Amino acid sequence: MGIFNRLFTIGKAETNAAIDKLEDPIKMTEQGIRDLKVDLDKSLQALAEVKAMSIRSKRSLETAKSTADSYEKKAILLLQKAEKGELDGAEADRLATEALTRKEEAMADAKRAQEEITRFDNNISQLDANVKKLKSTITRYENELRTLKARAKVSSATQKINKQLSGIDSSGTVSMLEKMKEKVEQQEAMSEAYGEISNESKSIDEEIDSVLDEKQLNASSSLEELKAKMKNKSE
Fold it and tell me: The domain containing residue 224 runs over which residues?
């Protein structure tokens, strides 16, 4: 039973390690921002729809108020006609009552429209707050993503440099330089030794010529010839 537990533990550790490798913070942040932008688009669409309904309700409210005012004026005109004898009183009362009924219906429509406007305005306020919050969150995440990408670049570059530095064998390099120095010193010593051997193998004539420079000898000879010519001319 113990071996199975150990195998399970090892397998679990390997699975967690694989998951850790798959979790790229930059890619996860980018996906989170994309998801938030989808939510923002949906919120903006919902906000636009609610605002459109609020606009229609406001128009309905104005229409209902206008209709109510119109029926009230009509009822007054009907009663005025009855007072002037232009219309039968009973007929005027019947028509005026119908006009006031239409007015009440219009007033009821206006009340419903006003209630809808109040409800829509509350919804608009909530949706607008959500939109602003989403925009702020997206902006904050995008700023954090830029910082995260910059840090990732610096971290990657630093890791590469440190890896390269850690791979340098300083002791091996020093040893190689010492060997090169020893080899150069050996070559210099050999060159000096061959020079000494070359000097030792020179003949006596070569030694004399090396002491008395050939140009010097030629110059001395020319000087003697010039003196002899000047002496002959004076005689």
Answer: 204-235
| Residue written as token pair 């061959």 | 194
pLDDT digits (tens, 9 = 90+) for 148-204: 888 888 888 887 887 776 665 556 666 777 787 888 878 777 777 766 666 555 556
Looking at the structure, tell me whether residues 25 and 123 fall in a common domain: yes
C-alpha separations of 16 from 25, 27, 116, 233 in Å: 16, 19, 54, 117
In this structure, the answer to whether residues 184 and 208 fall within a common structural domain is no
Whose structure tokens read 């028509």? 95
Give the C-alpha separation, 46 to 37, whole Å. 14
CA atoms of 120 and 211, how far apart (whole Å): 119
Q: How many CA atoms lie within 13 A of 70 on its CB side?
A: 9
Report how far Cα 38 is from the mean position of its chain's Cα atoms.
20
Query: Could you tell me the CATH number of the domain that includes residue 117?
Result: 1.10.287.620
Same-domain check for residues 181 and 143: no
